[in-house]
Amino acid sequence: MRPQVLTIAGSDSGGGAGIQADLKTFQELGVFGTSVVTAVTAQNTRGVHGVEAVSKELLAQQLDAIGSDFSIEACKTGMLFDASRIETVALGVKRHAFKRLVVDPVMIAKGGASLLQDTAVDALKTSLLPLATVVTPNVPEAEVLTGLTIRTFQDRLEAAERLLSLGAKAVILKGGHLEGERAEDLVISATEAFVLSAPRVATTNTHGTGCTFSAALTAELGKGHALIDAAVTAKRFIQSAIVHDLHIGSGHGPTNHWAYGMYRGEDVTIETITASRAR
After folding, report:
1. DSSP 8-state code for residue 179
2. Does 208 participate in catalysis according to the annotation?
3. Does residue 214 have a pLDDT over 50?
4. Is 212 an annotated catalytic residue?
5. How do residues 6-27 score in pLDDT, each as one tens digit?
6. Taking a C-beta distance cutoff of 8 angstroms, is the pair 165, 171 a contact?
7. Is 174 a catalytic residue?
């Protein structure tokens, strides 16, 4: 039987991000994807033109429908909209003992539209992060969650440690927003620390990269792979999706969810961080 996994996220009518990107990624990586929709967006490559949240009652019903009938080996959260829905999701995750929770703290769309209300940040930190197997913020999201300004490698280490102190078992702090020839993601837990590095790609077709990366990570964790192995596959998957982009739309175009299977992934460098460097 194929592993069954779950995405709890918003719908992207443009198909590049949200549950649409997650389900495409699950399919490509050979797991059976289920979904709980938190909100519906009117969205294309040019931006978000409307957002409407699903009622808390229907959100809870979706969680219960999945939890009562499927054996969820891993799940992920994406766009959660507001504090009350974050709390509803957290209660559902606990109620059904969903395994291996990946929290992608989606806050802002590529076009700049806010996808998480400011008052929801505390709920994310107090209700959801303590349940997380791994949290996968980009640099701006990590800055909001920690209150730090992140510029240097030491800043990233400090931010990751703060996120661990909030209860997440591991952190993957993505480096796509920083400068440099390579995009470096910091992977850190209480017992290990790595940097995953791949060449930076000059493209505007990056819509859905965070969703796709966290979905690939969820799929691999759902198969029972260790964190570092799952993170390497996720990095290779999204690197392929960016390198072999689709050139769809006139704004921030979507990545290519077929690319990993077609091109067998991209080279990713793995560097173990020594204890002295981590301090």
Report:
1. -
2. yes
3. yes
4. no
5. 999 999 999 999 999 999 999 9
6. no
7. yes
Which is the catalytic residue, given 16, 33, 78, 210?
210
Tell me which residue of 62, 22, 20 sits closest to 38, measured CA to CA.
62
Annotation says 211 is catalytic = yes
Contact 175, 189 (CB under 8 A): no
**Residue 271 CB neighbour total at 10 angstroms:** 12
Considering the entire predicted model, what is its pTM? 0.94
pLDDT at residue 159 greater than cutoff 90: yes
Side chain identity at residue 85, one-letter code: R
| Distance separating alpha carbons of residues 138 and 22, to the nearest angstrom | 17
Residues contacting 94, CB < 8 A, separation 6+: 131
Residue bearing tokens 């107090």: 126
Stretch (H or E) spanning 242? helix 227-243
Residue 269 known to be catalytic: no
For residue 66, which amino acid is it?
Answer: I
Spot the catalytic one: 10, 14, 175, 208.
Answer: 208
What's the rounded Cα separation, in Å, for the pair 192 and 137? 18
Which amino acid belongs to residue 133? Answer: T
